[in-house]
């Protein structure tokens, strides 16, 4: 199934995906993406988790050190911040809200946190101050992301290198 390139078509696809594409009755996948200052001095900028069941978490860190941002981050990531009012909050509040959000996820079917980059999982563990709650599994899924579906998502919605858009794109492009 391919992503339809019209806004109306995408809405139909998303409804179909949410209604029928939970790929297993035994687990629910949650797709993680983060944006961070640089590979050298990594601080969280934003974090998103998008579930096959429609649940979403998104936050932007209001107290990261902008001086640590790479040229790429300054040019590509920072201009996209602020699209979701009320979601720019301090790091410790992100830790608290994310921990609360994770605790609301049912343990059955088994929750699986999927990432396309190991650094996202490492940064998430730093944000929550340890490992995922008991019952969660982690899965690196970069090789299972359909690049054409990914490109179609960004062609319609933009937002490449925005944590929430990247997580949504990965959720739709996963095969």
Task: Describe it.
This protein has a single domain, classed as Ribonuclease H-like superfamily/Ribonuclease H (Nucleotidyltransferase, domain 5). It is built from 6 helices and 6 strands. It has a 6-stranded mixed beta sheet. α5 packs across α6.
List the helices and strands and how they pair.
Blueprint: H1 7-20, E1 27-36, E2 44-51, E3 56-61, H2 71-77, E4 88-89, H3 91-103, E5 110-115, H4 118-128, E6 137-140, H5 147-157, H6 163-173
Parallel strand pairs: 1-5, 3-4, 5-6
Antiparallel strand pairs: 1-2, 2-3
Q: Which properties best describe this structure?
A:
6 helices, Nucleotidyltransferase, domain 5, 175 residues, globular, alpha/beta
Number of strands: 6
Main β-sheet, spatial strand arrangement: 4-3-2-1-5-6
Main beta-sheet annotation: 6 strands, mixed
Tell me the strand percentage band. Answer: 15-25%
Give the SSE order as H and E letters.
HEEEHEHEHEHH
Using the CA coordinates, give the radius of gyration.
16 Å
* Helix content range: 25-40%
First CA to last CA: what distance? 10 Å
Question: What is the total number of structural domains?
Answer: 1
Short description:
The chain is of the alpha/beta class and 175 residues long. The protein has helices spanning 7-20, 71-77, 91-103, 118-128, 147-157, 163-173, and strands at 27-36, 44-51, 56-61, 88-89, 110-115, 137-140. The protein is globular and about 45 Å long.
């Amino acid at each position: 199934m391919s992503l339809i390139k019209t806004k109306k078509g995408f809405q139909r696809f998303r409804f179909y995906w949410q209604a029928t594409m939970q790929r297993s009755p035994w687990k629910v996948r949650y797709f993680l993406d983060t944006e961070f200052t640089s590979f050298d001095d990594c601080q969280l900028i934003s974090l998103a988790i998008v579930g096959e069941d429609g649940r979403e978490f998104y936050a932007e860190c209001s107290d990261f050190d902008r001086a640590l941002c790479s040229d790429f981050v300054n040019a590509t990531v920072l201009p996209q911040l602020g699209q979701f009012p009320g979601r720019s909050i301090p790091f410790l509040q992100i830790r608290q809200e994310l921990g609360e959000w994770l605790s609301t996820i049912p343990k059955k079917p088994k929750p699986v946190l999927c990432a396309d980059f190991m650094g996202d999982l490492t940064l998430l563990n730093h944000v929550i101050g340890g490992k995922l709650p008991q019952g969660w599994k982690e899965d690196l899924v970069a090789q299972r992301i359909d690049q054409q579906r990914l490109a179609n998502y960004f062609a319609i919605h933009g937002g490449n290198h925005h944590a929430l858009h990247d997580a949504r794109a990965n959720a739709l492009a996963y095969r």
